[in-house]
Amino acid sequence: MASASTPWSSSSPELAITVESNPSKSRLLELGIKSWPKWACPPGKYMLKFEAQETCYLVRGRVKVYPKGSSSVFVEFGAGDLVTIPKGLSCTWEISVAVDKHYKFESSSN
């Protein structure tokens, strides 16, 4: 299988994280990644709920995301990955390598 994206579903099909590994420089330029805000976080476990869809590009780091209530099902991504996290996802981020990312939230007012 030569798929660049890995969809993953928590408890329902619409809550899928998509990971695009090593997107091209032209794709990153087209998305305007460098103009997005940056966020950094040290290693640890964090419980998060996404109130809006987030698209992020990891400059560095390594993360395992577990859907709420699961300790065995997860999706993993890291530096060089473009990740889309669906609105409504409740999850735990297990950060093994400090994260530095650019991010953008989709808003329904656009």
TrEMBL record:
<dbReference type="Pfam" id="PF05899">
    <property type="entry name" value="Cupin_3"/>
</dbReference>
<dbReference type="InterPro" id="IPR008579">
    <property type="entry name" value="UGlyAH_Cupin_dom"/>
</dbReference>
<feature type="domain" description="(S)-ureidoglycine aminohydrolase cupin">
    <location>
        <begin position="30"/>
        <end position="103"/>
    </location>
</feature>
<dbReference type="InterPro" id="IPR014710">
    <property type="entry name" value="RmlC-like_jellyroll"/>
</dbReference>
<dbReference type="InterPro" id="IPR011051">
    <property type="entry name" value="RmlC_Cupin_sf"/>
</dbReference>
<protein>
    <recommendedName>
        <fullName>(S)-ureidoglycine aminohydrolase cupin domain-containing protein</fullName>
    </recommendedName>
</protein>
